[in-house]
Predict the 3D structure of the following.
Amino acid sequence: MKHILVTGANGQLGSSIQEIAKNYSNFIFDFKSSKELDITNSNMVSTLFLKNKYSFCINCAAYTNVEQAEKTPEIAYKVNSEAVKNLAETCLENKTVLIHISTDYVFDGKKKEPYTISDIPNPINEYGKSKLEGEKYIQNILQKYFIIRTSWLYSKKFGNNFYKTILEKAKNKETLQITNEQLGSPTNTINLSLFILNKVILGMETSYGIFHFTDKLPMTWYEFARQIIEENNLEGFTTLKKAKNYRTFAIRPKNSVLE
């Protein structure tokens, strides 16, 4: 049986993997929340690996607050870079295959076409820079790894995300002003979870390296909000407006669609 460690298990992706894990009776899962396993604590990580023989480690633990990362970048680098380095070194020592979740924000957004795995990353904010540094550590330390970049990740059930925020505001009949200045591919955590378990861990994807996974349909945040409202039959509850002067502390890529 394949023994699988899932870090950051209480986040929206980790929770989604937990939800479908019951369908994989040939896997043994060890789900660890960030409180149960602080990946920034190298001794805690090493001790856990010594007690268990993991075939795979799915690293869902990450610092994802893009705005705060600009103000306190040291936290982002501690979790997204240095902790990933320690995790990669521990996986190497224990012959564990690392499956690491990365982001579309490693790109600058200046390209008009979707980004491919051969495009050179050029992050424009501290969050993206910290995630790219984590990717580089993995590539320098490991030969057997999967770095999976994804885009605009959301769960309809777990965590705090754009989908659930729009849904709540629409039900409360709030007027929504949503930017149409960014283009990406909203990706459901269930679909990413199935890709990880079916393609990667079951061995259908046999080549190691960097992968891009999204739900394929590019759209702006405004279009995504409209889709959420329509699929929940809330058109008459809220007013949706395009916000042309969308301001954030962090600079964000205009186009982060992944091929």
About this structure: Helices lie at 12-21, 42-51, 66-71, 73-93, 126-141, 162-171, 189-201, 221-231.
